[in-house]
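Onboarding guide, step 5: your first structure request.
Type a short instruction followed by the sequence, for example:

Predict the 3D structure of this protein.
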Amino acid sequence: MKVKTLFPNKHRATEFFGLQIPMMEDVPLNASFDSYAVSADFVPYAYEKGEFTFSKPGEDLVDTQVHDLAFTISGDKQVADEALDKIVAYLRNVYTQVIAPTTNEPSGFHIVQRTLNSDNPEHAHCVRLLLVRIFRNEDFVCTEHPEFLLGMPIGQYHCPVCGTMVLAGIPHLPKDVFDDYPGKSEQ
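The system replies with C-alpha cells like these:
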C-alpha cells in the first residue's frame, strides 16, 4: 500500500530523542500509516474534497522537532470504524508501553491527537485523518497545545493544564507573558 505523504521534508523514523516507537505491523487495508519526525509548526487544519490541509500557526515552533504517527483512513463508516478500532488498539499500546510506562520515572514526553472527518455528507462522521503528535516536555511551556485546535470555533479558553488564557489555533504562550501587562492587578 502506498503511504500518502502528508508533510514535505519529513524524516521517516521509529526513534525520537531516545524514545523507541514501534511500527504498526497489521495496518488495515483501507488505511495507511506513517511514523516520522517533522517541525512542530505544521498542524492539521481541514479535510476538504479528499485533500488534507495543514497550516503554520506560529513561526516560533519552526525549529522544534516533534514526532508524528499519521493514519489516513478511507471507506464508508463501518469500514472506517473497523480500521479505527485497530489503530486505537495500536496507539493504546504505544502510549502504555512507550509514552507513559508504569514506572516511577516520567518519560519526558507527552502526546496530543487530532482527527479530521470527511467533508462528504454521506460520510460526515468518518475519520479520514488521525494524527498523534509526540512532544518532548522540555521543548514546550505546557502539555496543552492550542495550536492543534486550528480551525475549530473555540476562541480563547483557560488552559486545562496550567490555567493560562490561550487561543485556539495559536501556540501556547509562556505563563509569565502577561506579568508586565499594565492592567494586571497586584496579587
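Each response can be followed by summary notes, for example: The mean pLDDT is 78.
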